[in-house]
Design brief:
Length: 374
């Protein structure tokens, strides 16, 4: 069979069924690059989708956990760290406040180291000797190993380290018959009498027995004894108060008091320092010596014939009563740790052991400059 020209060409070059069209080289490269870009984009989108799914499943819990941790940390900070304070407050906070025991010791260390009579002052030295200022009839030159002194009028008594006693001055009413006493813890003296408490809380008494003052010898569980002109009193170990003797002015009507920490008695009054720092007074109040109702933060009190002095916990001092000789001029005193009152003068002990005095100095009872309490 004879073929035409086209047929002959087809037989010479038969068509191929899957033959790809001829593409110019430049166009082919662009399509390949485009395909790679689209492929990478698809992979990125796929990864984003996978990560989004994972976050949606776990992100809420993670956020809750993160929030809880943050909250817990904040609470811990609140509990463990104080609120921010000014630098001055932090400086003061770095110095701990003294404990009640330390505060009590601060005053107790000097209690009884100074005593005043009508016209004299006694000062216990560090070596246990006693310096007497004023009235020369009070001879303490042979006293030694003294740890506490007491005085009244023209009489004085000293307590030795071994619990025995010595006396000086007017001994005409047996107030000085104390040399046989032993195991004495604390002593006081009033007009023509001496009273003491032993380590066991028993009370000892000697001197003129006016107004049944000797009834005090029946007291027990006594912590501190107080002697006045015509009556005596005592603070018991439980903080109660008992009294005996002359009671015309109600100076012995203190039995209802409780929580008494310190006290003193004078010619016709009784003064008690309560645990809240206030002072209760019972007695004559002739010239305002009992006007103590507005006193606060008191830790000790000392009373004389017509004036009363109180020591505050901050070391300042208050006074009331007669100020005829300046015996109440104590408003400028500070850093005081002990006080004592005489007939018409007042003496204070400062925290460094030095002394300050005011009032009548007619016999040199206020010449305390240069002295130091032991």
């Amino acid at each position: 069979m004879e073929l035409n020209q086209n047929e002959q060409n087809q037989q010479i070059n038969p068509p191929q069924e899957n033959a790809q069209p001829v593409v110019p080289k430049k166009a082919g490269r662009e399509k390949i690059l485009l395909g790679l870009v689209l492929g990478l984009a698809a992979i990125v989108l796929l990864l984003v989708g996978v990560l989004t799914g994972i976050f949606l499943k776990t992100g809420g819990a993670a956020e809750s956990l993160s929030t809880a941790v943050a909250t817990e940390n904040q609470e811990a900070l609140v509990e463990s760290e104080p609120t921010a304070k000014p630098l001055s407050a932090l400086v003061y906070a770095s110095t701990p406040e003294p404990s009640p025991e330390q505060e009590t010791s601060r005053f107790a260390d000097y209690a009884g180291k100074v005593a005043c009579g009508s016209y004299f002052t006694l000062v216990v030295q560090s070596d246990g000797t006693v310096v007497r200022l004023g009235d020369s009839s009070i001879d303490t030159s042979d006293w030694c190993n003294i740890k506490q002194v007491a005085a009244s009028g023209d009489f004085a008594v000293g307590l030795c380290e071994d619990g025995t006693l010595v006396a000086a001055g007017d001994l005409s009413h047996s107030e000085g018959d104390v040399y046989s006493w032993t195991n004495v813890k604390q002593v006081d003296c009033g007009y023509q009498h001496t009273i003491a408490v032993t380590n066991s809380g028993k009370v000892l008494y000697t001197g003129f027995n006016q107004f049944r003052r000797t009834d005090c010898q029946n007291w027990s569980n006594v912590s501190k004894v107080l002697a006045g002109s015509d009556h005596v009193a005592a603070i018991l170990k439980n903080g109660d108060v008992v009294a005996a003797g002359y009671n015309e002015f109600g100076q012995c009507n203190s039995s209802a008091l409780q929580n008494v920490l310190d006290g003193d008695v004078a010619s016709g009054s009784t003064y008690c320092v309560l645990s809240d720092g206030t002072v209760a007074a019972y007695g004559k109040n002739w010239v305002g010596e009992d006007n103590v109702s507005n006193w606060t933060d008191i830790v000790a009190v000392s009373a004389a014939f017509e004036h009363t002095v109180g020591l505050r916990s901050d070391g300042t001092v208050v006074a009331c009563g007669s100020n005829k000789y300046g015996e109440c001029d104590v408003e400028c005193w500070g850093d005081v740790v002990a006080i004592a009152t005489g007939g018409y003068h007042t003496v204070g002990v400062l925290s460094d052991g030095t002394l300050i005095a005011t009032g009548s100095n007619n016999k040199g009872q206020c010449n305390v400059s240069g002295l130091c309490v032991g």
